[in-house]
From TrEMBL:
<keyword id="KW-0560">Oxidoreductase</keyword>
<dbReference type="InterPro" id="IPR027477">
    <property type="entry name" value="Succ_DH/fumarate_Rdtase_cat_sf"/>
</dbReference>
<dbReference type="Pfam" id="PF00890">
    <property type="entry name" value="FAD_binding_2"/>
</dbReference>
<dbReference type="InterPro" id="IPR036188">
    <property type="entry name" value="FAD/NAD-bd_sf"/>
</dbReference>
<dbReference type="InterPro" id="IPR050315">
    <property type="entry name" value="FAD-oxidoreductase_2"/>
</dbReference>
<dbReference type="InterPro" id="IPR012831">
    <property type="entry name" value="CobZ"/>
</dbReference>
<keyword id="KW-0274">FAD</keyword>
<feature type="domain" description="FAD-dependent oxidoreductase 2 FAD-binding">
    <location>
        <begin position="4"/>
        <end position="432"/>
    </location>
</feature>
<protein>
    <submittedName>
        <fullName>FAD-dependent tricarballylate dehydrogenase TcuA</fullName>
    </submittedName>
</protein>
<dbReference type="GO" id="GO:0016491">
    <property type="term" value="F:oxidoreductase activity"/>
</dbReference>
<dbReference type="InterPro" id="IPR003953">
    <property type="entry name" value="FAD-dep_OxRdtase_2_FAD-bd"/>
</dbReference>
<keyword id="KW-0285">Flavoprotein</keyword>
Length: 470
């Protein structure tokens, strides 16, 4: 037998699994598809973890109890979630930080542009890249073997039991295995297949940008679903999808390309029309719906428009916006139809009702008699200079994955595998049927990574006993 526990993947969930299995005494081999310099998958682009807590804790203020966390998740998913698994994640988020710190992760108070989540989210000192590096250092110190540039294409099973993995022409045996190789967001053909053509004859997926790693091709996920007939869960079109700067790179743009001024202004499509309530709820609870909203607009592009009053109230993106001293000039510079643009802005400005503006609460600044309404933070866009940001859908990770339970076991015809487990984006669809709220992806990956690692180590011990008995 080559090793006790084989972990396929190199991001947060994979590392949590590898470290936990190693702590349990297992020999662990981790296979990362990316080269060392690009290791860590999407986790390298993260910055925080959503944490349940019943009282203030170091970097977390006030309290964020289980029921509130659950209600937040229930709201963004529209009920498309497994409550038992969601609550498992929520409860695990209350106790994981000590373990993370023992493996070198450090936390800091939130930055000024992220104060909305000071109560709910713990921020990593140095961001996700520092977290990933800390975990790899700890793995090396503990004796976890790591191989880079080693994508796995398929696995061997026998009656639902893991036997070996194939990386190119190499066969790698192990007593148990954890799958944590991410979603399929970097696979353009699969995205096209999932989204198809829209009523305008467009292929929406052709306009998607990928916020994270280029290595999440979904090869192993497709193999498990299509060839090994593992139980799947989720909708292939559902994803953590954010409205990002249209000038962002195709891959690895990360957080700095996100446009966070949406709730402070209006968003127009290429016809110069608004299409959704920009002030529906706090931005950390709604930012992840905007990529999907933009994906359904003509050309999969939209524009966020603000005035000088909004400057300094949001985390600035990496690229400066288009600036103009008048709204007609801004419309021309953005390439939008000036007459319709001005009609939309005039209608919006007239509909804004006076209130007490406060971006830290759900304030009483709303529109009246306007469709779609703006429920909060609605102030006339009337103070030059004016700014516009072109938006395109930015996919973070996809939600189609493998069905599992509280043991993290992969299931075949509703029967759990005795030694094949799954964690992270490959199973996040069990908790996230749709929607997203900041930091929950890292909560899922951390909770199920640790469960999968523990279960894989236990399965390897059982296998060792059987071999000894034979």
């Amino acid at each position: 037998m080559g090793t006790d526990v084989l972990v396929i993947g190199g991001g947060n969930a994979a590392l949590c699994a590898a470290l936990t299995a190693r702590e349990a005494g297992a020999r662990v081999l981790l296979l990362e598809a990316a080269p060392r310099a690009l290791r860590g998958g999407n986790s390298a682009h993260t910055r925080n973890l959503r944490c349940m807590h019943d009282a203030p804790q170091d970097v977390l203020v006030d309290a964020y109890p289980e029921e509130e966390y659950w209600q937040d998740l229930l709201k963004v998913t529209g009920g498309r979630t497994n409550e038992a698994l969601a609550r498992l994640v929520i409860r695990a988020s209350a106790t994981c930080r000590g373990w993370m710190q023992r493996h070198g992760v450090r936390f800091q108070p939130p930055l000024s542009g992220a104060l909305h989540v000071a109560r709910t989210n713990a921020f990593f000192m140095g961001g996700g890249k520092a977290l990933v590096n800390a975990y790899y250092r700890s793995a090396e110190r503990l004796g976890v073997q790591v191989r880079y540039d080693t994508p796995v294409q398929r696995i061997e099973l026998q009656d639902g039991r893991f036997v070996a993995a194939w990386a190119g022409g190499e066969r790698i045996e192990a007593a148990s295995c954890v799958l944590a190789a991410g979603g399929f967001e970097s696979n353009r053909d699969w995205l096209r297949e999932a989204w198809g053509r829209n009523a305008r004859g467009e292929w929406p997926a052709d306009q998607f940008l990928i916020r994270g790693t280029r290595f999440n091709q979904g090869t192993l996920l497709r193999h498990l679903i299509d060839e090994q007939h593992a139980d799947a869960i989720g909708d292939a079109t559902q994803a953590h999808m954010v409205a990002i700067d249209a000038r962002a790179p195709l891959y690895d743009g990360g957080i700095c390309t996100r446009i966070d001024c949406v709730s402070l202004g209006v968003v127009l499509n290429r016809d110069g029309e608004r299409f959704y309530d920009e002030g529906e709820d706090f931005w950390p609870k709604r930012y992840a719906i905007w990529g999907r909203l933009v994906a359904h607009q003509p050309g999969q592009t939209a524009w966020s428009v603000i005035d000088a009053k909004a400057v300094g109230r949001f985390m600035p993106p990496v690229f400066p916006g288009v600036v103009a001293d008048s709204l007609p000039e801004l419309a021309r510079r953005l390439g939008l139809p000036e007459d319709r643009f001005m009609q939309t802005l005039d209608d919006y400005n007239r509909a804004c009702r006076p209130g007490r503006f406060d971006h830290t609460v759900l304030d009483d600044c709303a529109t009246e008699g306007l469709t779609p309404a703006k429920s909060h933070w609605a102030r006339p866009i009337d103070t030059p200079p004016f700014y516009g940001y072109a938006l395109r859908p930015g996919v973070t990770f996809t939600y189609l994955g493998l069905r599992t339970d509280e043991t993290a076991a992969v299931r075949f015809a509703d029967r759990p595998s005795p030694n094949l487990f799954v964690a992270g984006e490959m199973m996040a669809g069990n908790v996230l049927g749709q929607g997203y709220t900041a930091g929950v992806g890292m909560s899922i990956g951390t909770a199920f990574g640790r469960i999968a690692g523990e279960r894989a180590a236990a399965a390897a011990r059982v296998q060792e006993v059987r071999h000894a008995a034979a």
